[in-house]
Design a protein that fits this description.
This protein is an alpha/beta fold and about 350 residues long. It has helices at about 65-70, 75-85, 95-110, 125-130, 140-145, 160-175, 180-185, 220-235, 245-250, 255-265, 295-300, 320-330, 335-340, 345-350, and strands at about 1-10, 20-30, 35-40, 90-95, 120, 190-195, 200, 240-245, 270, 280, 305-310, 315-320. Strands 3-2-1-4-5-6-7 form a seven-stranded mixed beta sheet. The protein has a five-stranded mixed beta sheet with strand order 9-8-10-12-11. α4 (about 125-130) packs parallel to α6 (about 160-175), α8 runs parallel beside α10 and α10 packs across α13 (about 335-340). The longest helix has 19 residues, at about 160-175.
């Protein structure tokens, strides 16, 4: 039995998509003897944005930025990472690994690579389950090491060092309980998760609300997950103009929104849910009742150019009728409804490798 511990660092996570700049891992045997200890440094093919939480601090890179820029891209290491994550008789561990799994998923989608499906186990969740702590932020990797009395001199945000520290935490938990990692997993099933078919699931995630009769076209539950999947697939396409729709419409018309954002993308437009980022706002059709508070003043304006003002942004927002955006796309209401009937099949085909065009 092997144990693989991994950690990932990103240049930025704009639009919720991580652009990986390092994949660090430690491979051990079942006695925690280290077999491999490596940091795969790569060019993220994206800008480094290193502001920390609250825009008050800056993330310190483990290497000079030029080191990353002079390294091969993610695609160069794809087969290596695939071999590691698909290694037989190997348990994979991380510290909040669902985040790292999401970064990998983003890169598979960005570079058009076949998804690497794998199961993972969260050492942070295991630490929380086995060790009593008091106060905030006592479940971070560095805090866990301090609480467990683990002497570390690793470099923050150096992937292989974080992976090594994760290994030390699991090793100490195993020693304190007198149980193997497999036994700890069997007793704590909530630490298990996986990446499969474009979805990251974990036993510690809150259950998603199921769609009730009459909610088949609502933007919630599995529909919302599928819509986010579509947006991730579209996020890296070249775009010119950001388009936002009335929340009242999109919240009740999931299938139609799948068609609309896909068709817009083909013509160089991009969907956004943020009015502050939008160049165009599409009003709801007259047959859709209700109005969202954040959009109320836009609907009341008689000018097609509405100005957005806040502390950071001052820009013109073009307001369009729903029929006008359909005209731009070259489809009628009848065709939109017809295409919407195949939205679920379309999403399923995308998850199975179908292209957009």
């Amino acid at each position: 039995m092997n144990y693989l511990f991994f950690d990932i660092e990103c240049a930025n996570c704009d639009n919720g998509n991580g652009k990986i700049c390092s994949f660090g891992y430690v491979l051990t045997d079942e006695s925690f003897n280290v077999r491999e200890y490596t940091d795969l440094i790569m060019n993220p093919k994206a800008k480094f944005k290193l502001r920390g939480y609250g825009n008050k601090s800056f993330i310190q890179l483990a290497y000079p930025e030029q080191t990353f820029l002079d390294s091969p891209p993610f695609t160069y290491y794809y087969e290596k990472i695939k071999a590691l994550l698909n290694m037989e008789d190997t348990l994979i561990f991380g510290y909040a690994p669902e985040n790292d799994a999401s970064f990998l998923r983003s890169e598979f989608e960005r570079f058009g690579l076949c998804e690497i499906q794998f199961k993972f186990h969260d050492v942070q969740r295991l630490f929380k389950a086995l060790v009593e702590t008091e106060g905030p932020n006592l479940c971070s990797l560095s805090a866990a090491c301090d609480i467990l009395g683990i002497d570390t001199a690793f470099i923050t945000h150096k992937s292989c060092d974080d992976a090594f520290a994760t290994m030390l935490v699991l090793k100490e938990l195993s020693a304190r309980t007198g149980k193997s990692p497999q036994a700890l997993i069997n007793e704590n099933r909530k630490i298990c998760g996986q990446l499969k078919n474009g979805e990251i699931s974990a036993n510690y995630f809150k259950p998603k609300p199921e769609l009730k009769p009459g909610e088949e076209n609502m933007m919630k539950g599995i529909n919302k997950d599928n819509f986010r999947y579509l947006l991730r697939r579209l996020a890296f396409r070249k775009t010119r103009i950001n388009v936002a729709f009335s929340w009242v419409y999109e919240n009740r018309h999931y299938h139609e929104m799948v068609v609309l954002v896909s068709e817009l993308s083909k013509q160089g437009y991009r969907y956004t849910s943020k009015l502050s980022e939008a160049d165009i706002f599409v009003k709801k059709p007259s047959y859709v009742r209700g109005i969202c508070r954040r959009e109320k003043d836009i609907f009341e304006t008689k000018n097609s150019n509405y100005e957005i003002n806040n502390s950071k942004i001052k820009r013109k927002l073009r307001v369009m009728k729903f029929a006008d955006i359909l005209a731009v796309l070259g489809i009628s209401e009848e065709k939109l409804k017809k295409y919407a009937e195949g939205a679920d099949k379309y999403i399923e085909e995308l998850k199975n490798g179908k292209s957009f065009e």
